[in-house]
Specification:
- By secondary structure, this protein is an alpha/beta fold.
- The chain has 2 domains: about 1-225, P-loop containing nucleotide triphosphate hydrolases (Rossmann fold, 3-Layer(aba) Sandwich); about 225-305, Alpha-Beta Plaits.
- The protein contains 11 helices and 14 strands.
- It has helices at about 45-50, 75-80, 95-105, 110-125, 140-150, 170-185, 200-205, 220-230, 240-250, 270-280, 295-305; strands at about 1-10, 20-30, 35-40, 60-65, 70, 80-85, 160, 190-195, 205-210, 215-220, 230-240, 255-260, 260-265, 285-295.
- Strand 4 and strand 5 (about 70) form a beta hairpin.
- The chain is elongated.
- The protein binds adenosine-5'-triphosphate (ATP).
- Adenosine-5'-triphosphate binds next to strand 2 and helix 1.
Length: about 325
């Protein structure tokens, strides 16, 4: 569905200063996949999305999206994809249903066809009770559902969503995810979305692609990335810093101590903990606390870049 090779975008600013926003991305997304595209602010997510959706020409590289080349056949690409940007695309003058009908007419549907499609989408996105409201009167989550409906009018096989859940309250975020998952299940729609919410990407997406500084630095299932790149951790607390230092030397794995807290990276923490505790007891070390933790996607990012993805502010 998406085949990008060496996709690059350089912005030239005043005084010939350049910003290399995207630096040679290779990406293949198969039909039906749900991919979360993660990265800190300024990593190049939106620029990549804008190139893949033909809104921005690449400086170099190629991308075939939904069967067509983004440079040679942008109109054909646009006809087969849906794009829901960060800003709402709904106007303020029409009622919700009329917005959908108008969008359908823009895609060449007849008025009765556009009406039928609007009704299908009102049901799919559970917007039926809001059909006669103006978009400006909708809540954030309702409006986001309308945006998704607008992006689906022409039955795209591939849907791009830029930060679909950002700025919504937890309940509306969960609702948006329900709709995204339903869409995929019911129609096999390929979904490529950007998000700042690591837990959402972790639990919902079958594949996570992490971009940093314009380059893809990790790509795989959340579980595989966490196992391969971050690993489980055992955290031990001791009474003294000397004992913590001794814990580090007895650890079978990468270990660090901060004051009286010791963190050890292991492949399988629940299996490794009893043996480690036995070794500490034999060495006469009194352990005052012990726990195991599974890694998060943020741990993956930390391992890869030395910084936390959550250091960045989430845009409201
Ligand atoms: N039109 C532009 N002109 C100049 N620089 C730009 C332009 N658009 C983006 N950039 C720069 O390119 C880099 C990548 O920006 P991009 O918007 O793709 O990042 P992002 O990962 O989507 O960030 P965010 O999460 O904050 O939306 C940033 O350094 C940004 O300042």
């Amino acid at each position: 569905m998406i085949h990008a090779r060496g996709l690059t975008r350089v912005f030239t600013m005043k005084k010939n200063e350049t910003v290399e926003a995207v630096r040679g991305i290779d990406l293949d997304v198969a039909a039906g996949q749900l991919v979360a595209f993660l990265g800190p602010n300024g990593a190049g997510k939106s620029t990549t999305l804008r190139m893949l959706t033909t809104l921005l020409p690449p400086s170099s590289g190629t991308a075939v999206v939904a069967g067509h080349d983004v440079r040679r056949d942008p109109a054909k690409v646009r006809g087969r994809i849906g794009y829901v940007g960060q800003r709402s695309s709904a106007g303020e003058n029409f009622l919700v249903r009329d917005e959908l009908v108008t969008q359908g007419r823009c895609y060449g549907l007849t008025t009765p066809e556009a009406g039928r499609r609007a009704d299908e989408l009102l049901d799919l996105l559970e917007l039926r009770p809001l059909a006669r409201r103006k978009p400006g009167t909708l809540s954030g989550g309702q409006r986001r559902r309308l945006d998704i409906a607008l992006g689906l009018v022409h039955r795209p096989s591939l849907l791009f969503l830029d930060e679909p859940s950002t700025g919504l309250d937890p309940r509306s975020r969960a609702e948006i995810w329900t709709h995204i998952l339903r869409l995929r299940e019911a129609y096999g729609t390929t979904i490529f979305l950007t998000t700042h919410y690591l837990e959402e990407a972790d639990s919902m997406a079958e594949r996570v692609v992490i971009i940093n500084g314009g380059r893809i630095i990790a790509d795989g299932t959340a579980d595989r990335l966490k196992n391969d790149l971050a690993g489980d951790h055992i955290t031990i607390t001791t009474r003294t810093e000397q004992e913590a230092a001794a814990c580090v030397s007895l650890a079978d794995g990468d270990a660090t101590a901060e004051a009286t807290t010791v963190r050890v990276r292991v492949a399988n923490a629940p299996a490794a903990l009893p043996e480690y505790l036995r070794a500490l007891e034999e060495a006469g070390i009194k352990v005052t606390g012990a726990e195991t933790t599974r890694p998060t996607l943020d741990d993956v990012f930390l391992t890869l870049t030395g910084r936390s993805l959550t250091d960045d502010d989430i845009p409201a």
